[in-house]
Amino acid sequence: MTLVxxxxxxxxxxxxxxxxxxxxxxxxxxCVAMSCYYYGERMLMNCTVAVLSAVVTELIFSLLTRKRxxxxLSAVVTxxxxxxxxxxxxxxxxxxxAAVTSMSVAxxxxxxxxxxIFNPALCGVALVTLVNTQAASxxxxxxxxxxxxxxxxxxxxxxxxGMLTYLKxxxxxxxxxxDAFVGRQPExxxxxxxxxxxxxxxxxxxxxxxxxxxxxxxxxxxxxxxxFAPRTGASAESVGYELLAGSVIFCSVxxxxxxxxxxxxxxxxxxxxxxxxxxxxxxxxxxVFDEGVIxxxxxxxxxxxxxxxxxxxxxxxxxxGV
Amino acid sequence: MFRSFxxxxxxxxTNNEAKKAVIRRFSExxxxxxxxDQGGGVCIPAVREGEYVLRGQCVGIPKTEEGLAVxxxxxxTVEKIEDGVHPLRGKCRYVVIRDDKQNAEYPPExxxxxxxxxxxxxxxxxxxASIPGPTQYSExxxxxxxxMVRNGVKTLVCGAVECEPYIGHSxxxxxxxxxxxxxxxELMMRATYxxxxxxxxxxxxxxxxxxLRGVLNARKRRDNPAxxxxxxxxxxxxxxxxxxxxxxxxxxxxxxxxxxAGVTSPFACLSLYRAVYEGKPVTEAIIxxxxxxxxxxxxxxxxxxxxxxxxxxxxxxxxxxxxIIMGGxxxxxxLDSWDYSVxxxxxxxxxxxxxxxxxxxxxxxxxxQCGKVCPEGLSPSQICEYLMQNDIAEAEKLGLADCRLCxxxxxxxxxxxxxxxMLKEGKKAVCK
Lengths: 322, 432
Known about the structure:
The complex is a heterodimer. By secondary structure, chain A is mainly alpha-helical. Chain A has helices at residues 17-39, 41-64, 74-85, 92-104, 120-131, 133-137, 163-168, 177-182, 194-206, 212-228, 235-244, 248-254, 266-286, 293-301, 304-314. Chain A is globular and about 75 Å long. Chain A starts with 16 loop residues before the first helix and ends in an 8-residue tail after the last helix. Chain B is an alpha/beta fold. Among the domains of chain B are: 2-15 and 109-278, NADH-ubiquinone oxidoreductase 51kDa subunit (Rossmann fold); 369-431, no CATH class. Chain B is built from 13 helices and 20 strands. In chain B, β13 and β14 (258-259) form a beta hairpin. In chain B, α4 (178-192) packs across α7 and α10 crosses α13 (419-431).
């Protein structure tokens, strides 16, 4: 009998990368289901298109780079996040563009899983936003019955004004805070039911996939800026609207917690969250775009390594002593 | 009292059969191959081929004064003296003794008046009796006692914490030899000049706790006020190596300076008891034989030099055993063949039917799971990132030197990186 010699330890935990990605997709599914309920079958089609094109792109690149096709679900997660961050009425070619960009330019070009500097899904969405700002911010009424395959005709379906546009104009949005809280507001799908996102967040924290540091510090910063420098209305109202408008909560849970592109150290994570929140508000207040969180996270992604390095310098490893 | 520590891994040890097995004596082997390097210095054979040796007779004299002698575990004839391969350290000489089953004993020399012994004398007995340290990598027990005295330890910890899957010998020793362990621990306290001692147990060792409590209460009633208490430690790996820190005392005279606790093992206490009261040197090891390839997990008291194959066969080893591990599953050494024999410093032998996935990939997704389980609070993935770039200085800044190679990071890594191996290589590079 020949024996196998391996270095210690001789035991591995059963959870691989695939499992943690599966966890993320599992908690994404209720959010997707909820937005399908609000926006109808076109949202489902959006998801299918995004996921399929992301998976196919990853397969092509794994063949091109002769790396084994990684069986993890990261392409699925990326696809779902892209579908959640683009408005429902958008042309499918923009969804495909976002998904292909995210898996090729933002991920495979950097060397695949774990090597990318920027969050792939956000890169794709950011590109679409830059290419066609109009399309990426045109939202339609919930349950408007958008056509499944054809392009949405603006003469039959009138675009409505989202909360962020109201806020940009310095007005109080036309939806109540409660409606915004449960997601009954015309918005990109990421503005979906907050309780579901909160449960997803708790599950991710319980499974130790997400750390609460980034999400909480980011949302607290947004809330603090909204409280002390409201764009509209009273301070408390402003806090509610700024948090519930757009995709800031969704992104703080699903995008800002991507372990690959965010800092590892606790202090680095808090700084990451604070800066992301501040940049989000900066773009919202003074920028061209209505929503700033996507660009804020991308900007801070570039800083993650520096933040880790910084916190190692501020709090160097203390000698074990004993 | 319940103590815990940072990080670590909680294994499911509920169906650990070794903790429930009764210690069995194993003396079926005809031929014993006794290594002249049993942990604690290389020895020179003190016997000639064909010579008749008694049980407890010295067969190997240490090359240096600091080394530990090797004693024959059986009576019989020395059949051969040969060169062989040592499982941990490459080459060594072997003395092969054929057991004549007579069990003729070399006259033991118990201490005449135990209460008159001072610390130094007890330590010398521990040296002469060749008591090994708690793991197969540690220094001999007498060296550890010397270091404890030099460091001025205030608390002595007898570590019977077993938090790895499969392992159970320390718990069994405490359960079955409670009286001897307690008395040995008292001797150990005298040797290290400590006033307090703690027996650290973890969950799953209720039987041991009951036995120890019984002994301690009886001794209290007999007006024997040695301050020994039992403490529960979180059943997380690597609790055994954290005891030093968990039970450290803060010395107020020197400000915030902490004094680590001295750590000993139940086996060392038992051996010290036997050495002092019965005059017998260590000729047997108490080891767990378990693993997924073993259908009857057991704790055996085996003479040193027993072939591993005999021992594994007795515990009914599976035909499709893929690897044999000397030591625990987290830090043990995978052996390259079956033809080794039991060493004095052995604690466990595991036979596994499945082998852990091994890939030197570097698919780090920066999830920092390794940082969360690291008992030293390091970030292994970042250290390894620097090591892969050969930036040893930066790796050292992040605390490479504090890594104890416990293996928690490799166990948890979802990217299946061989972090422990990389850290080990890094530490070697630092030494160069």
